[in-house]
Write a structure and sequence with these properties.
Radius of gyration: 16 Å
Helix content: over 70%
Strand content: under 5%
Shape: elongated
Largest sheet: none
Number of helices: 3
Order of helices and strands: HHH
């Protein structure tokens, strides 16, 4: 199964953003600092996931 870097990044960003958002709204109020934390979690997940290459599979390494 091939998963593109874009799909990995989007999935990681959604997961990180959702985790940060759930934690931020525990008190029922979302302030500016918490909003910035959510955005930074999403951007960080996108950047890190985009930068790390997929591990080559057995079929990919034979083709090279």
């Amino acid at each position: 199964m091939r998963i593109s870097s874009i799909a990995k990044s989007i999935t990681a960003g959604v997961a990180a953003g959702a985790t940060a958002a759930v934690t931020a709204i525990q008190d029922g109020v979302l302030d500016t600092g918490e909003g910035v934390t959510i955005v930074l979690a999403i951007l960080g997940a996108w950047g890190i996931t985009w930068a790390v290459p997929n591990r080559p599979t057995a079929t990919t390494s034979r083709e090279l």
